[in-house]
Amino acid sequence: MSRIVVQDKLQDKLQDKLIVQEVATRDGFQIEAAFVPTPEKIRLIDALSAAGFSRIEVSSFVSPKAVPALADAAEVFSGITRRPGTTYVALVPNPKGAERALAAKADEINLVASVSETHNRANMGMTPEASIQGFAAIMQTVRGEVSVNATAATAFGCPFEGSEPEDKVLAQVERYLALGVDGVTLADTTGMANPRQVARLVARVLPLVGHERLTLHFHNTRGCGLANVLAAFEAGARRFDAALGGLGGCPFAPGATGNICTEDLVSMAEEMGLSTGLDLDALIALSRDLPRLVGHDVPGQVAKAGRPLDLHPAPPLKAA
Ligand code: COA
Ligand code: ZN
Q1: Is the CB of residue 124 below 6 angstroms from any atom belonging to ligand 1?
Q2: What is the pLDDT of residues 257-293, one digit of tens each?
Q3: CA-to-CA dists, residue 115 to 94, 218, 221, angstroms
Q4: Residue 201 and residue 232: Cα distance in Å, rounded?
Q5: pTM for the full model?
Q6: Residues 289, 87, 18, 169, CA torsion sign
Q7: Marked catalytic residue, from 158, 224, 250, 261
Q8: In the chain, what is the straight-line distance between the N-terminal and C-terminal CA atoms, in Å?
Q9: Alpha-carbon distance 278 to 265, whole Å?
Q10: For atom 45 of ligand 1, which residue has the closest CA?
Q11: Please, what sign has the CA dihedral across residues 277, 149, 157, 248?
């Protein structure tokens, strides 16, 4: 086979693949008023593993005072059954969190700092600079032991500061790469992004990070979530965070609402002929059980409407 044909085949494969990282038990549960019992969290993560996810963000090693809903992160990590081929990720804000995540044997740590100084102070109690200094210290101690992703939160806008200059986002990504991280996430923390903005920023960040290492994290706060996914996909991005049922939100951002909904994203991908490797029927069943876990209705739409091909029986013909 000629090199061009091989390249074309590789290109086709890339074109058709969309990777979903499930974040419901982290981003989703962190904002819930009612504590989801630890055994229920473990059961859900095991079921998500069985549904085929290659990446699951399990929990956060943050201050239990800041996020009581995830105070059981260590117990959750030790209780889950690890499926070979799945990367189990922990969100980490500072060196103490990294220490705890390593002790819990997380496969990957996700370091988070906001582009917005005001949001980082509200969320992490420090400036973005102080967060990144902490990440540098973490990189010194964890190098080689665990994979590291770094997230630029509020990359598409901040509820306190408004839109953030793209150059500022790029500068943060470059600092992460200089620290030697394995992956980078651009997060739209409060759903302020629009598809053209997404296409522009992805086009600038992708050459630095590469499609295997870049993740997009969208919230559907203003209804643009899946449109933003499509814009990012067409610009070359392939990895997306999503939460079952569309749960999610930052407890330290006013007006925060859910992530893009996993089963809605997977349904859209399948209808477009993109492969996710996920069992959509299993996801819908799990999503339909979420109201029992969180005590309220959840925003996801496909779990309510059914898959496009779940046909209804035709009504009887009226007598002429
Ligand atoms: N895990 C557990 N406990 C932690 C911790 C961590 N990663 N980091 C700090 N702590 C503890 C300290 O030991 C200290 O405990 P003490 O009061 O019993 O002595 C207490 O928290 C305060 O420590 P300090 O370093 O002063 O932190 P802080 O109060 O300024 O909080 C963060 C800083 C980053 C720990 C906190 O803001 C936080 O956890 N933020 C995460 C928010 C979040 O998860 N947002 C959503 C996801 S983006
Ligand atoms: Zn989020």
Answers
A1: yes
A2: 999 999 999 999 999 999 999 999 999 999 999 999 9
A3: 16, 15, 19
A4: 9
A5: 0.95
A6: positive
A7: 250
A8: 63
A9: 11
A10: 123
A11: positive
Query: Atom of ligand 1 at shortest distance to CA of 98?
Result: 7
191 lines ligand 1 (CB under 6 A): no
Report which bound ligand comes closest to the CA of 30. 1
Three-class SS string for 295-319? CCCCCCCHHHHCCCCCCCCCCCCCC
* Alpha-carbon distances of 124 from 33, 71, 92, rounded to whole Å: 20, 16, 11
Measured CA to CA, the distance from residue 100 to residue 104 in angstroms comes to 6
Residues 204-261: tens digit of each pLDDT: 999 999 999 999 999 999 999 999 999 999 999 999 999 999 999 999 999 999 999 9
The class level of CATH for 18-311 reads alpha beta
Tell me how far the alpha carbon of residue 199 lies from the centroid of ligand 1, in angstroms: 35
Residue type, 22: E
Q: Which protein residue has the closest C-alpha to ligand 1 atom 21?
A: 63
The secondary structure of residue 183, as a DSSP letter, is E
> Is there an atom of ligand 1 within 6 Å of 123 CB?
yes
| Chain position carrying tokens 């200094």 | 133
The amino acid present at 281, given as its one-letter code, is: D
The count of other CB atoms within 10 Å of the CB of residue 61 is 25
261 included as an active-site residue: no
Tokens of 293: 């876990």
Instruction: Spell out the domain ranges in the chain.
Output: 18-311
Closest residue by Cα to atom 19, ligand 1, is 63
Tokens representing 119 are 């949001």
